[in-house]
Amino acid sequence: MVCDSRTFGHTSRVIAASFGAVSVDKLYFRQLLSGRDFARDNELAQQMVNFVYAIGDRDTGSCVLVDPAYDVASLIDLVEQDGMRVAGVLATHYHPDHVGGSMMGFRIDGIAALLERCAVPIHVQKSEVEWVTKVTGVDRSHLVAHEPGDIVTVGDVPITLLHTPGHTPGSQCFIVQGRLVSGDTLFLDGCGRTDLPGSDPEQMYDSLQTLSLLPDDTVIFPGHQYSPAAHDTMTNVRRMNAIFKPKSKDAWLGWFGA
């Protein structure tokens, strides 16, 4: 089937995160685990336990894939089996296990392979553009460079792009209908590393403080399954995740800044 990018709505610049009213029946939201739901025979996918998300509008049949990697053909097939078509990609950050590229001696399928099948936009934060092009080899003409707080609309479903630097310069999370797709910024237990190229511990602290202000009933959907649960509420994550225990930036940097 041909993937469709024409159903994308406008992208508008906003500052506040949106939890707009979208009916449960209208919202298409699927969480897929690497090594289990797709790329079942890929040992690296099994080891890295990445989550890929499909978010869309059931009425229009359009959706976006968040961080498609390892086996993008299977991911496209899975959403098409649900009666959806891929209209774009939302990338949380540039690391190869999220967008494709080389890592630990392995070549990972990603957005470059997806573009061979689907001529769709790849949505990234503007400060991540250079990193994504370098790692994936995708020409920047395929990327849509966003400002913090932009909204991408899929059908009639708005998705807010929340810039959360720290793990990488242009790391971003996605808010849709009371859900936070948090990438490698926030896990249910812990947060993304801050000792990699482009990382910044102080920015990570600030980003985590921003996320901690989200409503208590926000459901967190992380970029990896590093905990037994696949998702949890912000109330529980705030209470149980050690990264929220320090009471100041200096204390946090002393614990987690290395």
Sum up the structure in keywords.
single chain; 258 residues; alpha/beta; Metallo-beta-lactamase, Chain A; 7-stranded mixed β-sheet; 6-stranded mixed β-sheet; disordered N terminus
What is the gist of this entry?
The chain is an alpha/beta fold and 258 residues long. Helix content is 24%, strand content 28%. It has a 7-stranded mixed β-sheet. The chain has a 6-stranded mixed β-sheet with strand order 2-3-4-5-8-9, with helices on one face. A two-stranded antiparallel ribbon has the order 6-7.
SS-based class: alpha/beta
Strand content range: 25-35%
Radius of gyration: 17 Å
Q: Please state the average pLDDT score.
A: 92
- Strand arrangement, largest sheet? 1-10-11-12-13-14-15
- The overall number of domains is 1
Compute the number of helices. Answer: 8
Oligomeric grouping of the chains: single chain
CATH homologous superfamily placement = Ribonuclease Z/Hydroxyacylglutathione hydrolase-like
- Helix/strand order: EEHEEHEHEEHEHEEEEEHEEHH
**CATH topology description:** Metallo-beta-lactamase, Chain A
Q: Span between N and C termini?
A: 47 Å
Q: Say how many strands there are.
A: 15
CATH architectural label: 4-Layer Sandwich
Shape: globular
Q: How much helical structure, as a percent, in the residues?
A: 10-25%
* Low-pLDDT segments, ≥5 res: 1-19
